[in-house]
Amino acid sequence: MWTKDGLLQDQNGDGVIDGTNIFINLPDFLAPEGLIDFCARLGFETTSLSFDFFEQREGVVELGFEKSDFKTDIRIEAEKLLVHYKSEVELSMLLKLLAAMDDEQECDWCIAIELRNGKVYAGRVPISVVYGHLESDYNLPIIDNLSELWSFSGVGKNKEASPGKSLSMNIEVEKPLLTTALLQEVCFFAARSSMYSTRISFPVTNESNASLHFVIGEGNHLLESGQVLDEYPGQAGAVLELVDTNILSFKGSKEMLSAALARLVRSKHWSEGGSFGYWEKKHQLAQKEDPPQLFEMTWKDESEVDIAFQILTKSENLNGADVEVFLSEPFKIREQLEKEWRVKFPEIHSLVIHSAYKTGLHWIMEEVLPEWQASNQLVQGMEIKVQKETGEKGLELPIRWIQELYPIDGYIEETIGLKASQVYFTLEETLGHTYEIYGIDEKGDKFFLSDLDVPVSSLPYLDGQHMVYPVSSAVRIHHVNKVEEHLIQTDRERFYRFYVEEVLPKLWREVSNYQPGQGHSRPLFDRIEVDVWMSEEEKSLQVDKERVSSLEALHEDLYFNTLDYFAQLGERVEGKAFSAPGGIHPFMHVRPGLKPEAQIKVYGWQEKSIEQLITKALIFDPEGVMFAATVTDGKREFYLPIGAFEQPSEQIHPEIQRWMENDPKYHVLYPDYSYGGHAIPVVECFLDAGEDFYSPLKMSAFKKTLFIEAGHHSNEVSSTPAVFALMDKAEEWFCNWLKHMNVVFIPLANPDGYQLLTKLTNEHPDWKHHAARFNAVGLEFAHVRFQNTVFGEANIYPEILRRWAPDIIIDDHGIPAHEWVQPFAGYNSPPRFPVSYFLPSAHIYGIGRVSQDVSYRNQHEENLEEIVKNVSQYLRDTSIDFDNSYWKERFIKYGNQWLPDVFPIEEAPGIHFYRQTFVTPNYASIGIIRYPEWIAADIISEAADEVVYGEDLQSCIDAHIEFDLAIIDVLLHTKVEWERHRVPGLSLERIRPIKLDERNG
Hints:
Chitobiase, domain 2, zinc ion binding, 24 helices, elongated, alpha/beta, 8-stranded mixed beta sheet
């Protein structure tokens, strides 16, 4: 009876029950309460559902009813399932017992199931039924807000995600109200509630010990008191009221209850395009206000060019001197200044103006190589001796001066043809200069070419414990017996000092009277906007994606060092870092030849508690339309109108817009809005059965499920187009895949960050723009998942885990596509990171996370190795493998060979795959860390995509696709193992976490 050979069906041929196969031919005069239990079992057995049980359809089993004076039984008769009943009471009892029938009962031979003395029998064999409470209430839904009756994750809402959702429900209808029409709607309510569940306790009627109570009666105090009618005159017909947690009262007049319940039962959550719950979300969205401006500051100063000129003007002994000047100006300006100053200072013997940013690189490009080429001296190689960095308490790495040369070997190969592999570095403990360069002739002999001493400044780092030694501007006057050096802080350094010494302390004073939780789950301030105008070098090197951009470096310093400033403040005042100070938006403007200036604007955080709206009642008009909700915020009670969610007509990301315009075949939902007000889409791919309602959690109970998150850090630009390209590329495979698995993905997890990115790239399209990594107020919102938060973007991931309970999570990310330096943080990438991201280490690499729980760690590690093996196999001998090999060589040459712990490599064939915990982030809001007992693998991909376009972007998209396909392949071919439970329905349960091994599939 409870199989696809009976009252259920598998409509799409995937082996999973996805619909009912029954026409309940219920006479108008009959209303057996037990039919509610029977329909609850129908809904419980399927993964999707339409309310057509009481409609005559071709090819389905008819359940008929016939009065009998002799017995109450159910049998096949005249090609239909016929129930004979002596009384409605006995009929009801039989239907309730059938609902709770043990599906392991062996009674294949029986021709009828009969009620005798309150029990059911197949012939002489009693049929066991399973009544009673569920073993655990851990995953019983809690309804303490009516807006969560139909939630994104089904009926009610569970605080924690779980692959199981239990239902212990009691439906009670006042007997005089139980008409046939009302009974049908109650049956649909029971079926829908049960469909969302993977465990159920029978009976669902008149069960006083149930967890959830749904009581239907006549009249309502809200109606009788006139409270509703005062607000909506003449409109109220029925009211659904939350009497207490998990106690729902549905009352109205006998004539109106059926129509109102029909609307309630068919209501869809607003995330699915319906209206249910949207009244609360719409109200919350309307409350957002623009943040107040806290203060504004400006900065102006002389340029370093003017200061250098003044030094030369005031110098009393330039006669016959050789003068070196170091300025962080574009090459053309420095070239022009050389010409002008030679005229203005004719007594100087020689004058050269070096760059004060990446000084060694510019020196070789602008001076050493041209002189070498002019000499026509043949060389077979080049050795660059580099002084080891030993600054006291300095954050700079020992190889700092090698880093400042990057990518000189590639530049030499591009410009003069000497292979990059023939240019090598030696790191010297003691060297007379910062750099010494030697040529190597055909015999292998070395000859001296040139040397350089780089001037450095010094300033304390924000942590108060370290020093940093950025390159300084300078005027260096060489006399016969002495060198006279005048250090000049670069324009960037002088502004940076102003920023950290005046702006940040003022900002802290403004926000220091903060509320609990600020700086952690919500920011101290809304945002700080920094506009800087300076004359600086900005050019492409035509080597890979490398460029020279001192203002990009300053952009990175301002962003990450501000984060560090507040992290240190948090340690001092609270004993833990402020991880969410606020949005930091540095806007850099190149202004050749003009004096530097800056403007800073700071906006405050609108501190208000997260508005806890609770819907206490839903009000229906006489036609059954749900038109108003009674809501409380804890202080007052008020009414909100009910209207349907309106899907965004335009998507903020062009790839999402393109895909939506092509009439997507799959389900698009909107579980929440970002803090900035953008509805965040989620795409669900499964083999649809065409029913009105479906239960993703139950689908994932029967099928393996994959969840992909894209666009979490918005400056990592390839993951969003990659998930759509994956679908486009795999279109011909998807139908086959979806017979065995479900796929759900977030295409753009961080729309607010993407909005900031578009603003930043308008002026500097090729920068990394890490300021757009996080959300609108600079929060890494992954850290506030599973918390009560105003940041809707943090809610999507937990909601998907509650709705789908995926087996594997893939988080597609990115790394810089070009050099990442921060001169005022030790030149390397930020000191907050345990390893260096100074240059790309690969075209794409993987990170695998495993639980620290000893009960599951071994299996997670084995699953991870299975994934690593298959990803390696997918990439081997491809262009991605070739690119990975290229970047591996670069990574070794500039980092790993000198400092393997700072530049680590965990190698697998064709790809780096990191498993060590010092590389892999592990915190409680990560799926596999939080739910090790059922998530099998949690993988990050990192493509070199910050920020790229055209062929480079396509290359990263392709890399993500191959990476994800390899994991899909493992999951697709892994054999599912089952265990059996003695329960009514769904007695087979997948063993989780699944053991990944495609060889056994």
